[in-house]
Design a protein that fits this description.
It is built from 13 helices and 12 strands. With 333 residues, the protein is an alpha/beta fold. It has one domain: TIM Barrel (Alpha-Beta Barrel), CATH 3.20.20. The structure holds flavin mononucleotide.
Length: 333
């Protein structure tokens, strides 16, 4: 590593050399890239998500011949079809097993869905293929006025519990930031068996083409300013959620990673910065973190961990309502 600084961390009971890991994304589709990430010091690998819709499609395909006029065929045009996604279910499990054989670091798999169902059984297959843990990405958006927040939260907690009970490896839930009482919901996920929370899903916001009267899906890489939302919730949830917290979104440099750790993150997941800068971005962030801690005479990363949480920071109101009133009042003074 070129530095004697102890950067080790424990994420969902798994010891990692340091907290800067690549997050879920396309990087792990390519075995060479995975090797380069490991060579660059990645302490763990996370695969992209396998989607509920892919698994439902696979099951549908196995059970019925597609009729072009059937309502199912029409509905399926709204779903990501397998060929649009890089890895189908079987390929996914094969790729997972291949990565596990190739690297020495833990490999996390990811399942993405919105409702309990047979697709969650893939968690067990991921475990069998050698996954060290699973991220359950519950990226969903309620458009139904009849669906209450309670029902939506219940569904996510139920999925978490179903997955956690079917595997012996740790399960992390990757959430969106849009919950009315996140601390309460985090506790519920804790009780449902989640060993980690990944904060947060990025919310891909479609744009509108006013000429074509069409909706344009847009995928932009993240901006460092997106980290602030994560810092606030990391700081609030540390000490209130029993498991490990991971930061995902807006970590682009070593100071960003340090901030997330100080707010209580056990790991920081990096995707946009790696897609832009390549695998050595991991090395750069890791070494930058070590250098900062050395320069500031810390003995280890553990000493910095959680030093700026709501419970520990010198001015807890900074994360709460009091600060909002102060900031608004200070404008233009
Ligand atoms: C091209 C691309 C593909 C992604 N695929 C997934 C995915 O399959 N599953 C998932 O949970 N997150 C996925 N993400 C989200 C990232 O894991 C991460 O949460 C998000 O990009 C924010 O982190 P960043 O600021 O470091 O990019 C993807 C992001 C990008 C840019």
């Amino acid at each position: 590593m070129g530095s004697g600084m102890d950067l080790s961390t424990t994420y969902m009971g798994i010891r990692l050399e340091h907290p800067v890991m690549p997050g879920a994304g396309p990087m792990a589709d390519d075995l060479d890239l995975v090797k380069r990430l490991e060579d660059a010091g990645a302490p763990a690998i996370v695969m992209r998500s396998l989607f509920e819709e892919q698994l439902e499609e696979e099951q549908l395909a196995a059970h019925q011949a597609f009729d072009a006029r059937s309502p199912t065929a029409e509905a399926s045009s709204f779903l990501p079809v397998p060929h649009e996604l890089a890895l189908g279910p079987e390929e996914y499990l094969e790729q997972l097993a291949r990565i596990v054989r190739t690297v020495d670091v833990p490999v996390f798999a990811s399942l993405n869905g919105t409702a309990p169902g047979a697709w969650l059984e893939y968690g067990f297959l991921m475990q069998q293929a050698g996954a060290a843990g699973i991220e359950l990405n519950v990226h969903q958006l309620s458009t139904d006025p009849d669906e209450t927040a309670e029902r939506l939260e219940h569904r996510i907690a139920y999925m978490t519990s179903a997955l956690a009970q079917s595997v012996s490896i740790p399960v992390a839930v990757k959430l969106s930031p849009f919950f009315t009482s996140l601390p309460h919901f985090a506790r519920r996920l804790d009780e449902a068996g989640a060993k980690g929370l990944v904060l947060f899903n990025r919310f891909y916001q479609p744009d509108i083409d006013v000429e074509a009267l069409d909706v344009e899906p847009s995928l932009h890489l993240s901006h460092p300013s997106e980290l602030l939302l994560r810092l606030r919730w990391l700081a609030i949830l540390t000490g209130r959620f029993g498991g490990s917290l991971a930061a995902s979104g807006g970590v682009h440099d070593a100071i960003g990673a340090l901030k997330a750790v100080m707010c209580g993150a056990r790991v920081t997941q990096v995707v946009s910065a790696v897609l832009r800068g390549g695998p050595t971005k991991i090395t750069e962030l890791r070494d930058g973190l070590a250098r900062w801690l050395e320069d500031h005479e810390y003995e280890s990363l553990a000493q910095a961990h959680g030093s700026m949480t709501l419970e520990k920071c010198p001015d807890p109101s900074a994360f709460e309502r009091g600060n909002y009133i102060r900031i608004i009042g200070s404008w233009g003074r």
